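Obj: model holo form, ligand = calcium ion.
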Amino acid sequence: MTESNKKILIIEDEPEIRRFLRISLSEQGYVVISATDGSEGLELASQEKPELIILDLGLPDRDGLDVLRSIRDWSQAPIIIVSARGNEESKVSALDMGADDYLTKPFGVQELLARIRVAMRKNSGGSTGSAVVTVGKLKVDMAKRLVFLDDIQVHLTPIEYGLLQELVKNVGGIVTQQTLLRSVWGLANTQKSHYLRVYMSSLRQKLEENPAQPRYIITESGVGYRLKDD
Ligand code: CA
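Output (holo structure tokens):
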């Protein structure tokens, strides 16, 4: 299965990583164009109108976050950040500025391809376009607000359901702590990430075979949570 001719722009200064991305993505049928710094990246983004952009944060000429902000001024193309920076602040900043996802180097091809599919799907109008979402043995009927595991109904509290719903709306994609807190508890509580830990833990107790090694609800440390797609 190939992604017929969708254009991906890579903005990355490290030649080996550029080469790795170019080869991996071309093999999948993507049309790959690349820039070696932020200025060239911005130029190509406006000229070539790629369907998706992979952006390195550590660029030689300008901060990747500046590049991200400039692109977001006029483009809604999904942007996936790839960066060696492990620090959580830069991930959160990038997501707050409108990046769609974040990969920390080094990362595997399969992981990258999965994130690209999720980001492109999200951009083409809704995460799923369906009221019933199935991930592995988990089935969520968003119209009826019902949750099933192996076809057996699971009873969730309104808060647990609210959190799960946010993750389901964005299957495979990262949902930040801010987004979860805002949507479930309202704006006033965006600092209270311990609420999230408590309720995510009870959600895992109900949904995960082994809550200590979750298969569905993955923690993105210091950033948020992700409902893992297959
Ligand atoms: Ca770099």
